[in-house]
Design a protein that fits this description.
This protein is mainly alpha-helical and 80 residues long. It contains three helices and no strands.
Length: 80
């Protein structure tokens, strides 16, 4: 059950990140992957800043922040 919730949160976070970054999403499956990788990146950034996210909404915020950062990095690398 936790795996399904993790994938669902990753998918939503990737979709939200695509909206926030104005269309830089890569499709449904890629957005799920970006959301999952973004959740790890987001949790790392939050830990470095001394922040903690609690509950499902907190996990979604963390994953979305990480996915936005990941999309920004990928966008910058594409331009270079």
């Amino acid at each position: 059950m936790n795996l399904i919730l993790f994938l669902l949160i990753g998918g939503i976070a990737g979709w939200l990140a695509g909206l926030i970054m104005k269309g830089r999403g890569f499709g449904v499956l890629a957005n799920v992957g970006i959301g999952i990788v973004g959740s790890f990146l987001g949790s790392l950034v939050f830990r470095l800043l001394g922040l903690a996210a609690m509950g499902t909404v907190g996990q979604l915020v963390t994953a979305t922040v990480g996915a936005v950062l990941l999309l920004a990095i990928v966008g910058a690398l594409k331009k270079a």
